[in-house]
Design goal:
Blueprint lengths: L1 H23 L3 E3 L4 E4 L4 E4 L9 H11 L16 H5 L8 E2 L5 E2 L11 E7 L5 E6 L4 E6 L6 E2 L3 E3 L17
Parallel strand pairs: 6-9
Antiparallel strand pairs: 1-2, 2-3, 3-10, 4-5, 6-7, 7-8
Length: 174
């Protein structure tokens, strides 16, 4: 009886080690609090977009002042992603139909309600910003006042301070 228990423990340890090694190389981790950690880029993403049409200025306000308080844990320095950061989420081998009916090619751990997302990249000479399309995997410039089916996916740098008590204001990062 002792040998069979030892055998089961050994098999259990091997399975655990195998699963740990397999998961060690994973790029994304679901934190279970509405956020996803991107180990490759050192970023934390919102698990979902804002779920509604939004202009660039509204998106910036929502990411800064509303989104952080929708999470059970408050993190500081949320912002709009850059174009390159959004491009890093493209996965042409996988995809899904978003809530607006558009097929999106994005890592499936992140859920979009529609495929057009605002970036932080702005035109210096006009009131325009880049919008990235996860359906056709391209970007274009549009006026920041437009809403259309545009969404925002908050992101933050992991090198900033981590959880902040909700009772205290988030620290400002330089």
């Amino acid at each position: 009886m002792g040998t069979s228990r030892l055998w089961l423990i050994a098999v259990g340890v091997l399975v655990f080690i195998t699963l740990s090694i397999a998961n060690a190389g994973e790029r994304f981790t679901d934190n279970g609090d509405g956020t996803i950690t991107d180990h490759s880029l050192g970023l934390m993403w919102a698990k979902n977009d804002n779920n509604g049409d939004i202009s660039w200025r509204e998106a910036k306000q929502w990411v800064t002042y509303t989104f952080p308080y929708t999470l059970p844990v408050h993190y500081d320095n949320w912002r709009l992603p850059t174009l390159d950061e959004l491009k890093s989420l493209v996965d042409k081998t996988k995809g899904y139909e978003s809530d607006c009916g558009q097929w999106v090619y994005i890592v499936p751990i992140i859920r979009l309600s529609c495929g057009w997302l605002w970036t932080s990249d702005r035109d210096r000479l006009s009131p325009s910003a880049k919008v990235f399309n996860f359906n056709n995997v391209y970007y274009y410039m549009d006026r920041m006042a437009h809403k259309r089916a545009y969404r925002v996916l908050p992101v933050r740098n992991l090198n900033a301070k981590t959880p902040v008590d909700k009772a205290q204001p988030a620290e400002k990062t330089p």
